[in-house]
Amino acid sequence: MKKILVLSLLAVFGVYLAEVLFKIDFGHQFFLNGVKDFYLTASPDKLKVANVVTSIVVNFRGFDTLGEVTVLFLATTAMSSILYKGRHKLGERAVLFSSSRIVMTGSKLLFPAIILLGVYVFVHGHLTPGGGFQGGVIIATGFLLMLLSYQDYQVSHVVLSVVESLAGITFASIGLIGLLNGGTFLHNFLHTGVLNNLLSGGVIPIIYIAVGFKVGAELTGLIYTALNEKD
Amino acid sequence: MIYILFSILLGGAILTFLANKISGLLRDTFFLLTMLGATLIFYTQLHIGGLVNFSIGSFNLEWGVNSFSWYFSLIVLGLGTLAAFYALSYMKGKENLGFFYFSFLISILSMLGIVMSHDLISFFIFWEMMTWSSYFMVIYSGKNVQKNGINYILFSAFGAYAMLTAIALVYANIHSLSIVEMISNYGQFSPALQTWIPILFLMAFSVKAAMMPLHVWAPGAYSDSPMAYTSVFSGALSKMGIYGMILIFVTMISHLPDDTWFREVFAWLGAITAIMGTLWAIAQDDARKLLAYSSVAQLGYIITGVAIGTDLAMLSALFLAALHALFKGTLFMAVGAVERQTGTVKFSEVTGLIRKMPWTFIASLLAIIALAGIPPLGGFVGKWMLYESLINSNHYILVIAIFFASTSAFLYCYKFLFGFFLGQEEKEWAHVKEAPALMVVPMLLMAGFLVILGTFPGILLKPADTAMQTLGFAPTEGHLWSMSVLFNAWGDQVLLRPLVYAIAGIFLFFLIILTVKGWKNTRYVTTKDISSSGEVPLEHENLTFSVNFYQPFLRAVGPVMKHRMITWYREFGAGMETIFDFTRRIYTGNGQTYAIYVMVFLVIILLLQNTIFG
Amino acid sequence: MVGSPVLFIAIPLLAAFLIPLLGFVWKESVRILPGLVLLYLLYLSLTLMEQVVHTGTIVEVIAGWAPPWGINLVFSPLTGLLTTLMILMGFIIWIYSYRFKNIDFQEAVKYFILLLMLITGSVGIVLTGDIFNQFVFIEITSISAYALTAFYKGRDSAEASFKYLMIGSLSSMFLLLAIALIYSQLGTLNMADIAAKAHLMKPEFKILALIFFITGLGIEAEIFPLNGWAPDAYAQAPGPIGAAFSGIVVKAGVYAMIRVMFTLFDVAGTHQFLIVIGIITLIIAEMSAVRQEHLKRMLAYSSIGQMGLVIVAFGIGTEEGVFAALFLMLNHAIIKSLLFLSGSYLVYHSTGKYISEVDGIARNLPITSFLFALGSIAIVGMPPFAGFWSKWSMLTAAAHSNLILIIGLVLSVSLIELVYYFRVLNRIYFFPKKKEVVVKKPTINALLAMGLLGLLILIIGFYPDSVTGYLHAASQSLLDKGKYIHDVLSTGQLLLP
Amino acid sequence: MEFKLFDLSIVEYAFFVTSVLIILIGLYAALVKKTLIKIVIGLSILDAGINLLLISIGYLKAGTAPIFSPALVKNMPLTLENIKKLSEGMVDPVPQALVLTAIVIGFGVTAVALSLVIRLYRHHHTLNIDEIKNLKW
Amino acid sequence: MHEIIQITWGAIVSFILAFTVGITYMGLNRKITARIQNRIGPPWYQNFIDVIKLGSKQTSIHHGVMQHMGPAFIMVTSVMSLLIIPILNQNRFFPNLNFHGDLVFLLYIMVFGPLGMALGAGQTGNPNSAIGVTRGLSQMAGFEIPWVMALVALMIQYKTTSIVDLMNIQVETGKWLMFSSPFAFLAALLAMLGMFRYAPFDIVGAPQELASGPMSENGGKYLFVMMSAGSVFAFAKLTLYVDLFMGGANNLIILVVKTFSLYLFPMLYGIVSPRYRTEQSVRYFWGWPSLFGLLAILHAMFF
User: Fold this and answer.
1) Range list of H helices, chain D
2) CA-CA distance, C484 to C482, in Å (whole number)?
3) Min distance B175 CA to chain E CA atoms (Å)
4) From A2, A6, A13, residue closest to B606, measured CB to CB
5) Is some CB atom of chain B closer than 8 A to the CB atom of C234?
6) DSSP reduced 3-state for E274
7) D34 to chain C, closest Cα gap in Å
8) Which of B66, C166, C255, D77 has the most CB atoms around it within 10 Å of its CB?
9) Nearest Cα to B133, choosing from C119, C179, A223, C383?
């Protein structure tokens, strides 16, 4: 009964949605004077950032990203708040399984490479596909690997929270410095350099690096909290 | 001056409330000073016709006194002051006195505010202040709070909201809140509004005036508030409803093309209120309830008078309004005195107080005679004018109805006197003493005034006449009344003075005859010393007849009383609550169901989009 | 230049990031910092508000890109008013919860971060001029709200939170769908730009987007039947958070919905739709409240009902109607917060939070009970308290638009409201106290916070002029769509780095 | 309704059709499945579907990634005209940026949801949503 | 001053007249009743003997001030109604206190006494008295309705509330109101049954049951005054009926004839009737008599 109801509801919803979507001329632009044209020109021209998505994420719509970072930060806080049960004791985490020596050694070998890859991805966020979020996630997978392989692997909560706080503060402070320096929040107050150079794009790489650190630390924290959770 | 008056009352209320924390004497002093100060200022400093205005919330508020409002302030302040003295003694030793005095003063303030408001918004604000301050009194005792308190506040709010709607309609149409402008622009409203605005206003006023079918709150509320306040509650506060009704009937209804319907309906509602109130009063065992129903009934007469709206009817309504304040104030005070001295207000529990509380008895007796409308007290004057006005304006059946109500009223009148004061004296109540002077004197003052009014109704008719002239009636002095003569439209007249003197003379003559004959030999024996079918009742046997007092009569009117309004309301309320209870089961507690609701909502809008956003 | 509207977002975020760090250094700072931030923002919002009313809307551009390319914040009389209100309520709630979780430092850190973010997210929803940015802020608010709802461990709070989260996820889905539809048609995300170009959209897109917006934002604005989560969340969240929900979060939701309906699209029939939906919400909520056995749940239903009333007032659509709606929102924020704050002390001692457990509690908690009574009397609209003026303006607005039926309906619902509030009041004051109850006395800061709210009720009640000027400016600014578009789109030429 | 079911151009709308289907599947799971974990999974699927939809709105036939990589720019002087010309062949970058944000937000919500599920399991010792309704009416 | 003396003088003469006639009627009542019941019965002057006996008896106890005042209250009603009701046409006998617009006043002054007596009875403490009083008051609420209806019908038909006016109309037209307003007369006549409290409406006193009800604790001077008041009141009522419906009387002889013939009605009705219970009697009065009253009003309104 419930299934039939839900199915019919979904059918109506889907039909209406699809009907409208089919009116979109797929694969063609049909709106005039959209903002994307501006972004596509201004990004290489004004900001000297090769990756337009990055310039949108960090600068044109940098405010969204600040919010996004906050969402992550909140998710971590929320998770630890929701699961919080008295004080954590380090190393007191549930033993899910014991990994074999091969896995342990392999992860140990892979771990630096993963971290390095992550760092590369967020440092080159304004040049190549990728960026702070992607890099941060890669870094977190490194820690996830370690946490899964080693039952007694420790990540210092203090370090994590210091890193994530500092990264967040960096982002917000750069925005505020922009406000003081150029009159608008997140103003790109550094020299923009030359397109496709590593040191180009003014504050964009700095912000993205901060985001990378923050995402990495936060995702690690999330995983750690979830694993470390007492029953 | 109005500012000062209001600030005195408001400040006095707050000071009294605060002083309660410090000392009882200080509180009493503040309370009394406030009340006296307000009365003094009102009578000495306030001149009729003065207006003050100021603006708040982009509304222009206007306060002022005219003769009409002066008449009602007379009732409020007169009764209020006497009740204040009474309260000092009556409330001694009770809890939360600061709260009581605060509410008392605030309700006096709000009543004065109502009659002095010249704009609708302050009228409404004062109206609501009156409601909640009196609500505090209703729940003061803490008994039946959930039932009577909620009833009262619910009905009051119903009325208030009706009024608010009317005010909003007026404001939306003329962009002014002045009562004067509302009246002067009334003719330009659309016909629908012309009908609905008075109806909405009258709904509000008939709640406070306890008119059928909106009277349900009254018995409970009147009987639950402390008697010191009930005298004001029933005597003055309910008159605010009458005040509003008169205003509406005179200024609006009379301009309606088909006002006869209105008048007939309201007159009949008033009459039915009177009848049903009387019948239910007869059935009560609790003196407070009896008086409460009696108040409902008395207000029914007044409403009828207002609704008929001829010169004489209006005059009688105004006169009865003041008179009702006097005698019902006295009676509630008497009940309060009995309650304070004996601790009960049930007729079936207390008897034979006449020798213990003679002054209370005398006050009650006079008030009852006035209530019953028996000459030579003031009540007769009001009743006479009411009947004559009804007969002269061709409301014959109405006369019968009213007369039936007031004849039946003798039953509960007698029950009141008999229940408390007469009957056998019992050892149980041997310790009872007369109430303190502070309580007795206000009652006696009012009772005395009732006696004077019986001979010289002109004292009260004079201001009533002035008040009516403010409302646009022709002066009536000389052709409807003079100091102690009453006239009707057919030229018939009652010369009160010779009648009263004759009654007094005959009474005294026979009293003297009775007294003189066997003066030496006749001695008082206790009420146990009776011949009851040849047997003398023993000391512990109480033969006083007080349970099922009027059972035969009630049996006779049984069919009418089978249905109680309050039962209907209660069933309605219970039905509503069942529906509500059913409704809240929409919130099943299952998160998925809520999510499905969201989808249902979406799909409904999707399907109806052409209708909704077409 | 006193400060820029962006500080309303940036400073709390900075503070939120700082709090964990400061916590390592000085524990008390965790409690103090949010208060300082909110106090500063309160000052800022008041000064900006004064400025805005006199000189006109401030449009703050982010990252130097003028609208529609960059994100912008709009501090108009309307948004300014709501911002001020939210910050004020936030500040008062902060005062109230200053000693919250006094023992457990870890919990306190999280509580204050989440509270600050809840407020910031709501302020962001109101201030932003970009629909996607609004979505982000809605999510910030929601996640903080989920976490705060589930804050207490011992109760069924996780259940409430999960329900909230489920429905909230649907909400974000619909919002994203609507954004996608709009973007596919107009290629822009700026509200003013959308509003200016709305006529270029194909009508079916427009209507579908509108429907998705209504559904998505309606969940935040608690309209029936999208509000299944609300009573649970209100009842299970800590007391101050309940106050924040009704005083801050819902206001933001309603604002977002109204902004979409009034500014973004010019679809016919929205006003009538708002009226109908508002009335349904109002009636169902008030009906559900009557037979409620839990105090906070009752307050929650009442809150939903009041929001229905607000929506009806918006639906009237005239300037008077909008004025009334804003006034209602203002009063509701203040009064309902007071009720939640004082109410949670009234049932502090009980685990079930049953109404029957407040019997005679006035003897132990005189001030709290008095404030609760004040709030109850004010919210049912009795003069001379704050609630009366808003109800009055609502009625006149309806009367002026000849919506007599609405008046009748609203007032009869008010009667229902009156019944259940007075039932509780009677219990508090006049029922015999149960012996075994050990009540919790409110702390000084809680009393201060409640006292402030009570004072506000009295001030607005006795001197409504103190706020009506701002409300008029705000209602004009909501209705003047052309001015909004002009203000935003004319902000500067390209500000380039 | 313009269903072009027998028109081959429907293939072009595969992205839309797929994303709508994914959305519907996710919704179905969230609305019908009894297990909390499955509901959370359903919500995640829902997110994925919406992200796909968003991305496909920005799709340009034969478009390139919106990156002015050295390979693309080659040795062209970066005048405004050149940039304009290059950018004409690029897909819309805005939805991509939006999706990035949406993914992160979806992730955050999922994390919170899962932690709530843990709490619920602890409290109720069940994952059946029909049995978790202490709060009602 | 002269006026006062005249009124006083008139009052005394009227009182004596009414007293004499009233007591005589009561004695005749007893005699006739006895004859019908096939008894010899007391002589017609027996009641005089009784009254004199009561008046000369020495009373030694009373139960309080209200009992003491009760008889005086009753006297007020009796004498006041006697003074207000014009005894002969054109007020040729003493006009006393008669005034224009006296009907409503009369209605109210007529209940003054019963209430006063009730108070007196109440204070005696005898339960029978109280029971009797409640029955009496209930019954009063019953018969007042047709009575008022009849009066109102007269008032509206002739646009006056004055008895003298009504009498003059009968004299002028030469037609008694009992013929021109038959329904009003019927209603009033049936109401009179209740007023006289003879069987079947004698439950108030109900000798075998209540020991004469309200009067039961009274003896000696109290009963003397009560009996006198009752007889005066009976005469006053009869005179009122004659004035209203039977064209009044031009001299005392005609008055006596008319009143006695009217008096026969409740008397004879009572002799052949059993006793009604209170609610039965109340319902009786709200039945046919009130219907007649209603018809009378309708008649007055439309004809």
Assistant:
1) 14-32, 36-57, 70-73, 80-88, 93-124
2) 5
3) 48
4) A13
5) no
6) coil
7) 13
8) C166
9) C383
Interface contact flag, B599 A13, Cβ < 8 Å: yes
Query: CA nearest A161: which of C115, C144, C109?
Result: C109
What are the chain D neighbours of B590 within 8 Å (beta carbons)? Answer: 129-130, 133, 136
**D27, B599: Cβ pair inside 8 Å?**
yes
* Chain A touched by C184 (CB under 8 Å): yes
Which residues on chain A are in Cβ contact (under 8 Å) with B603?
9, 12-13
Lowest mean pLDDT among B257-261, B351-355, C136-140, C473-477: B257-261
Q: Phi and psi dihedrals of B459, rounded to 5?
A: -55, -45
Q: Are C158 and C233 in contact (CB under 8 A)?
A: no
Quick check: C64 and A85 CB within 8 A?
A: no
Per-domain residue ranges for chain A?
Answer: 2-227
pLDDT at res. B533: 57
Are D133 and C136 an interchain contact pair (Cβ–Cβ within 8 Å)? Answer: no
Domain boundary assignment for chain E: 2-302
Q: Is B501 within a domain?
A: no
3-class secondary structure, E275: coil
Residue C227 lies in a domain: yes
Q: How many domains does chain C have?
A: 1
Nearest to C91 by CA among C335, C346, C452: C452
- pLDDT of C396 strictly over 80: yes
**Model pLDDT for residues C63-89, shown as the tens digit of each residue:** 778 888 888 888 888 999 999 999 999
CA-based torsion, E153, E159, E161, E165: positive or negative? negative
Partner-chain contact A27 D2, CB within 8 Å: no
Domain that holds residue B575: 563-612
Q: How close, in Å, is residue B241 to chain A by CA atoms?
A: 56
Closest approach of chain C CAs to the CA of A122, in angstroms?
21
Is C34 a member of any domain? no
The verdict on residue B58 lying in a domain is: no
> Which residues in chain E are contacts of B429 at CB distance < 8 A?
none
Domains of chain D: 11-131 (1.10.287.3510)
Q: Using CB atoms within 10 Å of the CB of residue B426, give its burial: 0 to 12 exposed, 13 to 18 middle, 19+ buried.
A: buried
D108 touches chain A (CB under 8 A): yes
b vs e for D28-54, b when ≥16 Cβ sit within 10 Å of the residue's Cβ?
A: bbbbbbeebeebbbbbbbbbbbbbbbb
Please indicate, yes or no, if residue B604 is contained in any of the structural domains.
Answer: yes
Please give the radius of gyration of chain C, using alpha carbons only, rounded to the nearest integer: 21
Peptide bond between residue B457 and the one before it cis (omega within 30 degrees of 0): no
Q: Does D127 touch chain B (CB under 8 A)?
A: no
Could you say which of E112, E144, E155 has the minimum Cβ distance to residue B374? E112
ipTM for the assembly:
0.85
Residues of chain D neighbouring C153 (CB-CB closer than 8 A): 119
Q: Which domain holds residue C335?
A: 130-489
Model confidence at C135, pLDDT cuts 50, 70, 90, reads very high
HSE at residue B328, side-chain half, CA atoms within 13 A, is 33
Confidence of residue B532 (pLDDT cuts 50, 70, 90): low
- Count of domains forming chain B: 1
Residue C37, domain member (yes or no):
no
Nearest Cα residue in chain C from B602 = C215
Task: Answer yes or no: is B346 within a domain.
Answer: no
Q: What angle do CA C286, C290, C295 make, to 5 degrees?
A: 100
Closest alpha carbon to B54 in A126, E262, C463, C444: C463
What pLDDT, on a 0 to 100 scale, did the predictor assign at position A31? 66
Tell me whether residue C291 is in a domain: yes
